[in-house]
Amino acid sequence: MEKNKLHMADAIEIVLAEKDNRTMHASDIAAVIAAKGLYVQKNGKFPVYNHVRARAG
After folding, report:
1. What are phi and psi of 10, to 5 degrees?
2. What value does the CA radius of gyration of the chain take, rounded to a whole number of Å?
3. Where are the domains of the chain?
4. CB-side exposure of 1: number of CA atoms within 13 Å?
């Protein structure tokens, strides 16, 4: 698998920038990241809700 070009925080910012109010539920953010292939973890999987939630604070 190709090495990530983005950090997860960057992928989150990209997803939120596409929303008018820049707010989304963490599970929706994770789904968009996976659908667009913006970030893949070292284990080859896409981030899940709790990973996005932990990063978003």
Report:
1. -65, -40
2. 11
3. 1-33
4. 12
